[in-house]
Write a structure and sequence with these properties.
By secondary structure, the protein is mainly α. The protein contains 13 helices and 3 strands; from the N terminus they run βββααααααααααααα.
């Protein structure tokens, strides 16, 4: 499946994401139901798709106004995320999933987990680059803006016919067992969802093992010790951490 160069960007809908040879691709469908694949490098296409998502969901514009964010689509960030962090998070999440016992695996759908992990940070295309790439600690206002990226990702994708399960994992991938993450959980929802736990720990481990503008790349042991503290604080399931520990020992050199 390849993207038809004649397909009009405005006629395409983002349907999810897949991996081929450890690289991530977005899955699009046109108005005739044909499926196309594209990586994150086509800036014109992705700018058009994201713009259409914004137009389809007025709540996004309201969110941007509330936080005084200019609606600038940062497709360079999308390209970096697709080929880097989101792809890496997916690989780690699926590795953790594969190590869990069959009894625990039955609590989460593998396809949903894979799709959500590849799309979890899509909302960062609307976060100002001066905040995303700030070479210092974020202040309170900047942190509030950064923290809405998961909600923005949820709102962007909500018009694209993804499953409710996938959307929930994207929205709450920064939550934890103590409910001290973001966004705030509704009263009828729990953060003990296994999919949330897997994507959350994969996302954190990937981020800790990357060099960022504000800090050096952490070693495998340093990253695992930080996450182990969250296990002791009751934020991460021990079974999920133990699976990550085994994954890191086997695959993270």
């Amino acid at each position: 499946m390849l993207l038809n160069p004649k397909a009009k960007e405005r006629d395409l809908k983002l349907k999810g994401a897949v991996q081929i040879n450890h690289s991530s691709f977005f899955v699009f469908k046109d108005k005739n139901g044909k499926t196309f694949l594209k990586n994150g490098e086509d800036e014109k296409l992705h700018k058009s798709i994201v713009q259409k998502m914004i137009e389809l969901n007025p709540h996004i514009a309201r969110l941007l106004r509330r936080y005084k964010i200019k609606p600038v689509i940062d497709t360079r960030t999308l390209n970096e995320l697709t080929n880097g962090h989101m792809n890496d998070t997916c690989n780690i999440a699926m590795g953790v999933y594969s190590i869990l016992s069959n009894e625990i695996k039955d609590k989460v759908d593998k396809g949903t987990l894979k799709e959500a992990s590849m799309l979890h940070d899509l909302g960062k295309v609307l976060i100002p680059s001066k905040i995303l790439n700030k070479p210092a600690k974020l202040n309170v206002k900047e942190r509030k803006i950064m923290n809405i990226h998961s909600t923005l990702g949820y709102e962007l994708l909500k018009t694209q016919n993804l499953s409710n399960e996938t959307l929930a994992l994207i929205k709450y991938h920064h939550q934890n067992l103590q409910h001290s993450g973001y966004p705030v959980l509704p009263a009828d929802k729990t953060s003990s969802d296994l999919g949330v736990q897997i994507i959350s720990i994969a996302d954190k481990y990937s981020a800790l093992r990357e060099a960022r503008v504000y800090r050096r790349r952490l070693s495998r042991m340093e990253a695992l010790l930080i996450l182990y503290r969250e296990v002791r604080e009751g934020k991460i399931m021990p079974s999920v951490f133990n699976a990550l520990l085994k994954y890191a020992e086997l695959f993270d050199n």
